Automatic annotation (TrEMBL), chain A:
It comes from the Bacteria. This is Uncharacterized protein. The chain crosses the membrane at residues 7-26, 46-63, 70-90, 96-116, 121-139, 151-172. Keywords: Membrane, Transmembrane, Transmembrane helix. The lineage of its organism: Bacteria, Bacillati, Actinomycetota, Actinomycetes, Pseudonocardiales.
UniProtKB/TrEMBL annotation, chain B:
GO terms for molecular function: DNA binding. One of its GO terms (biological process) is phosphorelay signal transduction system. This is Response regulator transcription factor. SUPFAM superfamilies: C-terminal effector domain of the bipartite response regulators, CheY-like. The lineage of its organism: Bacteria, Bacillati, Actinomycetota, Actinomycetes, Pseudonocardiales. The modification 4-aspartylphosphate is found at D57. Pfam families: GerE, Response_reg. CDD domains: REC_NarL-like (cd17535). It comes from the Bacteria. Residues 6-121 form the Response regulatory domain. InterPro entries: CheY-like_superfamily, NreC/VraR/RcsB-like_REC, Sig_transdc_resp-reg_C-effctor, Sig_transdc_resp-reg_receiver, Tscrpt_reg_LuxR_C, WalR-like, WH-like_DNA-bd_sf. Keywords: DNA-binding, Phosphoprotein.
Length: 362, 216
């Protein structure tokens, strides 16, 4: 919206300049020339001064690119109309709408400057201006047809010209608004595109970061440096497979992302032939992705070490979220966590290893 | 020797009825299935009406759980083990509140069903791991206050499915694990609507010295 505001501030300044030029360039010379014809001349000069003053007052706001406050605009319009009545009343009877009647056209310009932001009032004020002037013209005495015809031509041409200016101004303003809307739309789309691009880049980096364990493993297998029949290699494969499954599940849009990820890990373990019993209790709570990753990370490791059986549980109380695994594993597989968010505890109990990751919101 | 424990099985799947009957009959001592059927009427007529324990499937062919049937059975003083496909905590807690002695999911197998039936025969509650999870995750306003140790027992039992493991982890005996679980159930029996099974549970807990009268 800023663009069309700026444009309209410029239009107001142009209108103000036109009014000032018309008053000093076109209206001051006839006023000076016909000083002797007015009855009395001081009324005419006072009206001229008042109109000049209105222009100056308007300039205070318009040159600073601000719209006129409502009291100034409406008060100014009343003053201008009053000045018009005074100036018209001081005309010689045969001078109406002619060169000597300088105020008629000028008052229209003043009204446009004052009321261009209030079109309805502007139309009313212009109509009032024309009506009072015509009424004064009628009241001042008999006019022959040539006089009436001449007056009509002047009134219509002045009115037509000024109306055209008003219409052009309004059309310009509308176009500017539309243009601003289109521009805002374009900006929004551009922002969205940039965001999507950024997201995509982040995603790529995250994936690359989390693929850490997989890439050297694949390279080792391809080079023949790692033996697929080796127990250690098999365990690394199990870990990498579970990590990948968890990673794929991480960005799925599901109502319960934690359980979704846990199920992905369980599924990967079951594919290896591990019998897993999964239990979930409590309702889903919102968990930040980082925390979720740290809750399921130890689970990935624990499950990849399970030999034949594992019990996986997710418990969500009003105070905490706990993900636990109890599995039969090879001894010596401790899980260490360095996370400040999630507390991980693991221990060996006879043939079984227990791991628990706990997170307390707040 | 005591008379053999009898049960009536209400389940809309014939395979489940047959499987349950087999499991119960294979236990030592065996539990006799006096009657079984796909409609809750079998628990009210003939041999089913006098069976010691009702094993009730909550979802009898319809989408809504048969909570009304459960309530009527419990109000008639029947000892009910709910045996359900669904593992949602809210339903489990509602069944306990209505007076079921056990809520068992079908994912939990033979061992739990036989033990739950046997406990129900004595009028005792049985808390399988999934139900322990539901109790541990209970966020309702009227839930009873559990001690830290009781909560720990619930969580460990839910996580490990092994009372020996719970005992080992917490440095207590398996029978202490059981009495913790029982005390928790007594606390739960004291909330919600009244039921004969729940009243009996509380009364016996006082007799056995599991809780004091001042705990009421």
């Amino acid at each position: 919206m800023a663009d069309d505001d700026r444009l309209f501030a410029n239009i107001r300044i142009v209108l103000l300049a036109v009014t000032a030029v018309v008053q000093t360039g076109l209206n001051a010379p006839p006023l000076l020339r016909h000083q002797a014809d007015y009855r009395p001349a001081w009324a005419e000069n006072a009206a001229f001064a008042v109109l000049a003053l209105v222009t100056v007052v308007c300039a205070v706001w318009l040159l600073r690119r601000r719209p006129l406050p409502t009291p100034v605009a409406l008060g100014g319009a009343v003053v201008v109309l009053a000045a018009s009545v005074v100036a018209t009343a001081a005309q010689p009877a045969d001078g109406y709408f002619l060169d000597v009647h300088w105020s008629f056209g000028l008052v229209g310009w003043h009204l446009i400057v004052l009321l261009v932001d209030r079109v309805g009032v502007l139309v009313g004020a212009l109509a009032a201006h024309v009506l009072t002037s015509v009424t004064q013209f009628v009241l001042v005495g008999d006019h022959d047809r040539a006089e009436v015809g001449g007056a009509g031509v002047v009134v219509l041409s002045v009115l037509g010209f000024q109306s055209a200016i008003v219409v052009i101004t309004l059309v310009l303003r509308r176009q500017a608004r539309l243009a601003a809307l289109v521009a805002a739309d374009r900006d929004r789309i551009a922002t969205r595109a940039a965001l999507a691009e950024q997201w995509e880049r982040d995603r790529r980096q995250t994936f690359a970061g989390q693929l850490g364990a997989t890439l050297p493993l694949l390279a080792g297998l391809a080079d023949g440096a790692l033996d697929p029949s080796d127990e250690g290699t098999r365990r690394r494969c199990a870990l990498a497979a579970t990590q990948l499954r968890r990673l794929f599940a991480e960005n799925d849009d599901v109502p319960d992302p934690l359980v979704h990820e846990v199920k992905a890990c369980v599924d990967a373990a079951e594919r290896r032939g591990v019998e897993v019993s999964l239990a979930v209790s409590g309702t889903a709570v919102a968990i930040p992705t980082v925390v979720r990753r740290e809750l399921t990370g130890p689970l990935v490791v624990a499950l990849s070490h399970a030999r034949t059986r594992a019990r996986v549980s997710v418990l969500r109380t009003d105070q905490e979220v706990r993900v636990a695994v109890l599995a039969d594993t090879e001894p010596g597989d401790g899980i260490v966590s360095t996370s400040p968010l999630v507390q991980v505890e693991s221990g060996t109990y006879g043939p079984r290893t227990r791991m628990e990751a706990r997170w307390k919101p707040n | 020797m005591e008379a053999q424990l009898t049960a009536v099985v209400v389940d809309d799947h014939p395979a489940v009825r047959a499987g349950v009957a087999y499991w119960l009959g294979a236990g030592t001592p065996p539990i006799t299935v006096a009657a079984s059927g796909e409609d809750v009427r079998v628990a009210w007529i003939g041999d089913g009406a006098t069976a010691d324990v009702v094993i009730l499937d909550l979802h009898l062919g319809g989408p809504t759980p048969a909570l009304g049937d459960l309530r009527r059975l419990v109000e008639a003083g029947r000892r009910v083990v709910v045996y359900s496909m669904r593992a949602d905590d809210e339903t489990a807690l509602t069944c306990l509140e209505l007076g079921a002695l056990c809520y068992l999911t079908k994912a939990e197998g033979e061992e739990h069903l036989v033990e739950a039936t046997r406990a129900a025969g004595r009028g005792d509650p049985y808390t399988p791991p999934s139900l322990a999870g539901a109790l541990a995750g209970d966020r309702s306003d009227h839930r009873p206050a559990l001690s830290a140790r009781e909560t720990e027992v619930l969580v460990e039992w839910f996580q490990s499915e092994s009372k020996d493991f719970v005992a080992q982890r917490l440095g207590i005996t398996a029978s202490t694990v059981n009495s913790h679980l029982e005390r928790i159930r007594v606390k739960y029996a004291q909330i919600g609507r009244e039921a004969p099974t729940k009243a009996a549970l509380v009364a016996r807990a006082i007799q056995d010295g599991l809780i004091g009268v001042e705990d009421l």
